[in-house]
Each structure stands twice: as C-alpha cells, then as structure tokens.
Amino acid sequence: MKTIIKDSSSSEPMHILLVGNNPIELSSVLKNLQAVQGFKIVTEIAFDLKSTVERLIRFNPNFAIIDDNLGKTELRETIQTLSSNKKTKDIPIMVLKNSNYKEAFGGSNVLDYLLKQNLSPEAIYNTLKNSLRFRRTQLYLYQVYQKRKEFLLKLSH
Question: What is the CATH number of domain 14-156?
C-alpha cells in the first residue's frame, strides 16, 4: 500500500516503512500520517519480519515506524534487521508504544518513542523532524570523528 501526500514545501518525499501486526491500529497511524503537513510521504506497510525484509527489496525507506504490539522477540528482530541492513542502517526508527510501563527496546537504534494515545499528525510531524535532525547530527559527528581520529590519537599520546 502506498500513500503519497503532496506538499510543495519540500521536494523529496519521506519514504516511511510502517511495521505492525494490527491492521486497525496501522490504519489509524496511516490516517495520521496522511494528515501530516510539511512532508511528502510515501508509505509501505509490513506486518511481520518476513514482510519487512520483502519490502526492503524494492522500497528504500528513510524512516521506520514500528508498533510494539509485534511482541518482544519480533520487535527486537525487526529493529536488528533494519539496523543491520545496508539500505536502512542509518535511518531513524520510531516505536509506537501502548504504555510507558513497558520496557523500551532497541537501544541507540531507536531514536524516539511515541505513545499511541498521543498519536496525532502534529506529534508525528515533530517526531519525524526531530528524529531526522538527530540522525543527521549523529552521522555528521561520526564522519567528523572518522576523519579526525588519527589527530585525536596523536593528541592523547
């Protein structure tokens, strides 16, 4: 399923991979994504780890939203797959949570969590914007570090 939101403020669309096992909740997320202003959005939906891998063959997402209803094991495996895949290792991952009382997954691979009860187009927009900015900063700092690593090592000796 693909959804395109036209907005003239940005030329490149956001390619969002939406992963979850509950079609009703995913349709709610999709409805909120369709109402986001400020981004052109193209979505692909996957219902499990297998369909996530299948989507990655033909879809190049630059953001992933994963519903925590997948269960601990499948959620962890999906995050690991996205984090280790050549196409998706640098994309921001957001997990939709039912409650703050469940443990958080993903470590540094998950950049943001959003409670489903707070799901709105504005919350999604802010999460997209902040996560993308944070990921770009992380990648920039990593690149700068790699370039200057030898210099830093010389300073420490």
Answer: 3.40.50.2300
